[in-house]
Amino acid sequence: MREIVISKNEAGQRLNKLVMKYLNKAPSSFVYRMIRKKNIKLNGGKAVGNEIVYVGDVIQLYLADDTIDSFRDDNIQTAASGSQKKFKPEIIYHDHNVLIVNKPVGVLSQKASKDDYSINESVLDYLLDNGYITSEQLRTYKPSICNRLDRNTSGLVLCGVSLMGNQELSRIIRERNIDKYYYTIVKGHIKSVQDVTAYLVKDEKKNTVIVRDGVDEIKQDSGKNEFEKIHTIFEPVRSNGKYTEVKVKLITGKTHQIRAQLSHMGYPIVGDQKYGDRETNIYFRQTYKLRNQLLHCGEVKFTNVTGGLDYLTGKIFYAFKPCLLYTSDAADEARSVD
User: Fold this and answer.
1) C-alpha distances in angstroms, 117 versus 107, 224, 293?
2) What are the φ/ψ torsions at residue 97 (nearest 5 degrees)?
3) C-alpha dihedral sign at 141, 146, 150, 153
């Protein structure tokens, strides 16, 4: 007989789902049959399978060790601890449910291929290395990030450490009970706050988007009837007439929204290779070796949070790192004020 004691990271899952993760090579029919035959019990009693498990609950597997071992893949990859690209993440905030990290430029939010080492793997290795979770627990629940930033956008990324934290963070973001602010430098002079709505359509082949002011323009320019409404607030911080530092409040969060919308408005982000101004980018690359867009998610505010993470209501987290945006020679020139 083998026991699974439910930790805070695993709590909130259905019993049958958790067992199928633990016996990751077993067919679901086997798991359901063992539950019906009482070979799998919850807290010593008969289980149905759809019970939600809580911290301290114990699942008993009345199965031979050979049977259990045959249905478990011990080579399952839990994190990327052996990667040569391993780096320690900059932790902004951490409790038993939530972790907030400052992602550097050039790092993926999540891996795109098997050998990638993203901020997600970095967070997993941090939790493993510091004893917040074990490799065995990662079989039944794996913490993951809940929002994504482009590879060359830096700043705050939110991660659910516990299952409840992950589910609640995802809900908070989906229901827009969190305000996210980005900081950027654009070509041109933005004189006043601009509260802008527009429409966006994706070009999957080119991995770009088209932004237009109206639905009819989208249909005419893209030939597509599928589009998304976007909403962004742009607040100028300071300008020298040639460049403007802008604080951006993201109301909706769509692919390349800030970059494409600012370019459409005539204020391309400095260093943006997809939507930026070619001559500006060449100048900053040749003069300052700038090779990425100056875009940084520097602030998140939890507004009206209910549920298990209600203790975060009103809390604001910042990630203003000079090495990411504010003290490079390129940024100094772009931010210079007459």
Assistant:
1) 8, 36, 21
2) -110, -30
3) negative
In sequence order, what are the beta bridge partners of 94?
A: 99
First to last CA, the chain: 76
Tokens of 74: 């011990």
User: Mean pLDDT for each consecutive 10-residue tract of the chain (338 residues)?
Assistant: 89 92 92 95 95 94 92 64 72 96 94 88 93 86 93 95 94 94 95 95 86 82 77 94 94 93 97 95 91 94 95 94 44 52
Instruction: Give the position of tokens 């060359």.
Output: 152
Query: What is the distance between the alpha carbons of residues 24 and 140, in angstroms, rounded to a whole number?
Result: 9
**Total residues belonging to the chain:** 338
User: Cα(115)–Cα(293) distance, rounded to whole angstroms?
Assistant: 25
Instruction: Give the tokens for residue 66.
Output: 């050979």
The answer to whether 101 and 89 have CB atoms below 8 angstroms apart is: yes
Distance, CA of 48 to CA of 35 (rounded, Å)? 7
- Amino acid making up residue 300: V
Q: Are 191 and 334 in contact (CB under 8 A)?
A: no
C-alpha to C-alpha distance for 277 and 7, rounded to whole angstroms:
52
Classify residue 196 by burial, with Cβ atoms within 10 Å: 0-12, 13-18, 19+: middle
